[in-house]
Design goal:
The complex is a heterodimer of chains A (about 300) and B (about 325).
Chain A: H1 12-23, E1 26-39, E2 42-55, E3 59-63, H2 70-78, E4 85-90, E5 93-94, E6 102-105, H3 117-127, H4 132-145, H5 161-174, E7 179-183, H6 191-207, E8 211-215, H7 219-225, E9 228-233, E10 238-244, H8 259-272, H9 274-291
Parallel strand pairs in A: 3-8, 3-9, 6-7, 7-8
Antiparallel strand pairs in A: 1-2, 1-4, 4-5, 9-10
Chain B: H1 17-40, E1 48-53, E2 65-67, H2 68-81, E3 92-96, H3 104-116, H4 127-158, H5 160-174, H6 182-189, H7 193-217, H8 221-229, H9 234-268, H10 276-286, H11 290-318
Antiparallel strand pairs in B: 1-2, 1-3
Helix pairs in contact in B: 3-11, 4-5, 4-7, 4-9, 4-10, 5-7, 6-7, 7-9, 8-9, 9-11, 10-11
Classes of the chains: A alpha/beta (about 300), B mainly alpha (about 325).
The structure holds adenosine-5'-triphosphate (ATP) and magnesium ion (MG).
């Protein structure tokens, strides 16, 4: 344990905080989870024996190479995919189907285009049996919170990408889920907007009782946001390591420049090193291309 | 704003207003112009001759149409028999088009007189009555098709199970030509409007189920999944997410299918007691009143176009969120 390269950055306060988190009640408990998909008649193992526990009000980020099953994991937790083996417990109860206790924000915009911003946010509230009037006033409070008062009666197609994702987030949060699942929600935003959204999200998270399970392939984003980072391995997806982020809270923009941040990033890169894989892949493909004769008149370009 | 021709040839680029107007105008003006040219320019086509003077030929009566070659042969024969014949004693005529291509002004006149001329027999309907009858048959047939077709299509598009129980048979039935059921429909439903409505129903219902199912399946799955994670499911989801989500496309489907319903009208109106606008057309064609035929076809076209324009305008109002997609 002492030999862990990030230990030198874990200050007593951070250590103390981490220990306190682990003493909280577990909210999301993933146990020995397996998942395969059928591909051309053959089963392809996507997730193998995933074990992970998220505690109350924790901010978890999930990183891993492309195709390692991050989205699949989130969809399993949401109940949008069926579990092959193992189980997922929410507050001790096994997950069987989608439910309002697990909100989800998708990468692609998933607002209902025929509803105004207000109606989108009210959707889950009305579904849970709340009266229209109460739902409306509650929705407006959420809309205020993310600074979209002016757009309460606009349709989604009138909003920018960042605004849409803000609405998607409060639509999920209005339902007061225990866990908020986010699958690369800011991937389509430009860097400046992304940072703003990350700050929004942290602020909201600090102020309400919610556990966030945030999927990303952007390591900076993961480090900036998370308490702990779940690093997955690919083919099949397995837990490689759960990394404690050695950064104090609250996090500021300067956090990105701190030595602890850099060290964490270097360490995570060594764990994920998905760039290497892609380059290797590319090399292979290039070799294949080179084997094809280009033009018999010109045997060699040199 | 002026016309920007470069946008005319750029794929999927919206046009400026004057271009739109010009092209829409041209879309009607060009066929009309061609029609006028063929009708009024004697050197274009005009394969027949309308006799203006019989010249003593027994079967040349004034106003009859004969082929150019026949006419020429007769004239040549006359000249050969009597080389010194005076030109005024020869048969004479003017180039004209066959009876099935009346000129625009004839159709325009027919268009007017068709509504003002009383029917030949007192028990026959006026044109506007025929028309109204046709519209009712279409409306009822389409109504019944929608009443059953839309819910079945939405179910089939939503649940794989419903798709497997509904679609194979529908797919099979859709290939059976609706007219083939004419006699059967009369035997079962009698000779009045019921079998006609049934033909419209058969012609549109099966297509409708399949088209609505396909439209429903095209709904962004993320919307369905989002609603699931927000605690919405079952019939409630169909009502609150799937139906509103597909509504603009469903509306467009119905506009297209309504056009098909008109195609089946001609069959529908020939079975049982003949009636309606297409019966009027068939009958006028039999009497060779092609100006009336064209007028009636024009009426159907205008009704179709006007309904479609109204529905399109209405659609824009009904689905304000849809225009940006
Ligand atoms: N519905 C499905 N049917 C078949 N295979 C699937 C299905 N969904 C995902 N897969 C496969 O499972 C693997 C993991 O997919 P997943 O989307 O979870 O990866 P990911 O980690 O989210 O990737 P990315 O970072 O690119 O989003 C991929 O190889 C994918 O092809
Ligand atoms: Mg993914």
């Amino acid at each position: 344990m002492n030999s862990h390269p990030l230990n030198e950055w874990i200050t007593p306060e951070i250590q103390d905080r981490n220990e306190r988190i682990l003493k909280r009640p577990p909210v999301l408990d993933i146990q020995k989870l397996h998942k395969s998909f059928e591909h051309k008649g053959k089963p392809v193992e996507v997730l193998r024996e995933i074990d992970f526990t998220a505690y109350k009000r924790e901010f978890i980020c999930v990183v891993g190479p492309s195709g390692c099953g991050k989205s699949t994991l989130a969809r399993l937790v949401a109940g949008l995919e069926t579990i092959d083996d193992g189980q997922i417990l929410m507050d001790g109860e096994a997950v069987k189907a989608p439910g309002p206790d697990r909100g989800m924000v998708f990468q692609s915009y998933s607002l209902f285009p025929w509803m105004t911003v207000k109606d989108n946010v009210m959707f889950g509230l009305v579904e849970s049996g709340m009266s229209k009037l109460t739902a409306e006033s509650e929705a407006l409070q959420w809309i205020d919170l993310v600074g979209l008062e002016k757009f309460a009666d606009s349709y989604p197609h009138q909003l920018s990408g960042g605004m849409k994702q803000r609405v998607a987030i409060i639509r999920a949060l209005a339902n007061q889920p225990k866990v908020l699942l986010m699958d690369e929600p800011f991937a389509a935003l430009d860097p400046k907007n992304r940072l703003k959204m990350q700050q929004y999200l942290l602020e909201i998270w600090q102020n309400i009782d919610i556990t966030i399970f945030f999927i990303t392939h952007d390591l900076d984003e993961a480090i900036y946001l998370a308490d702990r980072i779940l690093v997955l391995d690919a083919h099949p997806g397995r837990v490689k390591e759960v990394v404690n982020v050695p950064l104090p809270r609250p996090r500021e923009e300067e956090t990105f420049l701190s030595p602890a941040f850099m060290a964490t990033k270097v360490y995570l890169e060594s764990l994920v090193h998905h760039e290497d894989e892609e380059v290797e892949d590319m090399e292979d493909k290039l070799k294949m291309v080179r084997m094809v004769s280009v033009n018999s008149d010109v045997p060699d370009i040199f | 704003m002026s016309i920007n021709f470069s946008t005319w040839f750029t794929p999927r680029t919206p046009l400026d207003k004057p271009s739109k107007r010009l092209l829409t105008f041209g879309s009607f003006a060009i066929p009309l112009l061609l029609w006028c040219l063929f009708s009024y320019a004697p050197f274009l086509w005009h394969p027949q001759v309308e006799i203006t003077q019989s010249g003593g030929v027994s079967y040349f009566r004034e106003g009859t149409l004969v082929d150019k070659e026949v006419f020429q042969k007769v004239v040549d024969k006359k000249v050969a028999e009597n080389p010194g014949i005076d030109v005024s004693e020869l048969p004479q005529g003017i180039p004209s088009n066959p009876v099935y291509l009346p000129a625009p002004h004839e159709v325009a006149t027919a268009f007017y007189t068709a509504f003002t001329t009383p029917p030949k027999r007192s028990n026959e309907p006026w044109l506007h009555e025929s028309l109204w009858h046709s519209i009712q048959v279409i409306a009822w047939g389409f109504f019944w098709a929608m009443l059953f077709g839309v819910p079945l299509g939405v179910l089939a598009g939503t649940y794989a199970s419903a798709s497997h129980i509904i679609e194979p048979f529908t797919e099979f039935f859709r290939y059976l030509p609706a007219p083939a059921f004419g006699a059967l429909a009369v035997a079962i439903l009698g000779i009045y409007d019921a079998p006609k409505i049934a033909i419209i129903f058969i012609g549109t219902f099966f297509q409708m189920v399949l088209i609505v199912a396909a439209t429903t399946r095209k709904l962004n799955i993320a919307l369905v999944e989002a609603s699931l994670t927000l605690g919405c499911k079952g019939l409630r989801m169909i009502r609150r997410v799937i139906l509103p989500g597909i509504l603009p496309d469903l509306y467009r489907d119905m506009r297209i299918l309504l056009g098909w319903a008109w195609t089946y009208l001609i069959v529908a109106e020939l079975i049982g007691t003949s009636s309606g606008i297409t019966w009027f057309i068939t009958q006028q064609a039999r009497y060779k009143n092609f100006d009336n035929v064209f007028a009636a076809i024009l009426i159907i076209g205008i009704i179709g176009l006007v309904t479609d324009i109204i529905l399109a305008r209405l659609g824009k109002r009904l689905f304000p969120w849809h225009n940006s997609k």
